[in-house]
UniProtKB/TrEMBL annotation, chains A, B:
It comes from the Bacteria. The keyword rRNA-binding does not apply. Residues 21-81 form the HTH tetR-type domain. Gene3D superfamilies: Homeodomain-like, Tetracycline Repressor, domain 2. PANTHER family: HTH-TYPE TRANSCRIPTIONAL REGULATOR BETI (PTHR30055:SF234), HTH-TYPE TRANSCRIPTIONAL REGULATOR RUTR (PTHR30055). Pfam families: TetR_C_24 (PF17932), TetR_N (PF00440). The keyword Transcription applies. One of its GO terms (molecular function) is transcription cis-regulatory region binding. This is TetR/AcrR family transcriptional regulator. Residues 44-63 bind DNA. InterPro entries: DNA-bd_HTH_TetR-type_CS, Homeodomain-like_sf, HTH-type_TetR-like_transc_reg, HTH_TetR, KstR2_TetR_C, Tet_transcr_reg_TetR-rel_C_sf. Keywords: DNA-binding, Transcription, Transcription regulation.
Amino acid sequence: MNHQSADAEVARPRRRVSNVDESRAVIISAAAECFMRKGLDKATIDDIADEVGSTKGRVYHHFRSKNAIFFAVYRRAMELCFEAVEPVFASDSPAAQRLEGMAHAHAMVMMEHLPFQRGIRSGVEMYLHGSTTAAERETLTELIGIRDEYERLFRRVLEDGVADATLEVDDVPIVGRAILGALNGLTDWYRPRTGESGAEREAIARSLTRTVLNGVVRR
Amino acid sequence: MNHQSADAEVARPRRRVSNVDESRAVIISAAAECFMRKGLDKATIDDIADEVGSTKGRVYHHFRSKNAIFFAVYRRAMELCFEAVEPVFASDSPAAQRLEGMAHAHAMVMMEHLPFQRGIRSGVEMYLHGSTTAAERETLTELIGIRDEYERLFRRVLEDGVADATLEVDDVPIVGRAILGALNGLTDWYRPRTGESGAEREAIARSLTRTVLNGVVRR
């Protein structure tokens, strides 16, 4: 278990984070909540300022538009995924074991950072349909590139599993999408219960991981 | 193969469909295309009329609002799912075999009726966030009920598989969602290639089905 007491929190040496970074992080987090609750199209800068308990001015001090905030939410959502999954991908274990760890870690990120992950699911679609500026489309293309790079981690572990004979994969891109689809579905149906424990989320992640790794047909 | 010649089409006794039903079906189908192409929020009744090659008046003759058309698209999308999957569910085979057939049939519906299936994925969410009337919310609740009923077919076959010992399932609702998530992901990433054959779609459906049934870990 990784719970820290308040004292440990104070004693622990902290990464140096500027006040600007902290302000931005607070706004990004509040925006993710608003996007989840009201929908990306309906949420306003006012809603985000209310969620932060701040003024619209403070929000505009850091971001020039709602689109800019959405892009920051997207970027953070992908960072959270990479931070959880990349170390497992890069470990020395056989591919089947790495895939198991990656699937579990991905499922946990979906649940523990639900507003971030949920906000970005439908968002890109909406922006691609919408009237974006050339600069915004460039940012979107970059963000989609980051997402593709993340998806490639799963393809690469599947290829590694074919190579080390721990996995059986007939079509790497499609199987990769099946696995991520099964896990990403969490953003559609998972809602934390009041008082839910980390152990309950772990159990959900284990069931999903077992399904994508072992299937359901009795051996 | 089930291709019918034009003659066979003429000779075959047809289900009696009124002109009103046919007009409605054409509008619903055009609307599904528009929702996919422009996004649900951006598509207008004008776009739908253009797609049909008709006037706005004709569209309004059949539907009182864009919301009403969206609901009809949703209803039809679910009918298409039930038509493909329910007969397999109701067959006499062992549960593992029925699940295989159901997953394959569901994947094929996602691909062959992509505009319908894609339109409804983000739609309900948007309408729940949006400003709907009491009557509309009632319809939405009914439609979500239909979707839940569909999901129950998958849960029931999983339960049957535990009973007839052809499937190994630790948590029926979560495994059901993993399976549908893996298949529904198609609406995010599948786009038909120009000149794509039915055989190519069958191959995609088989890869997905094999993944959700057998997993990827080498036995």
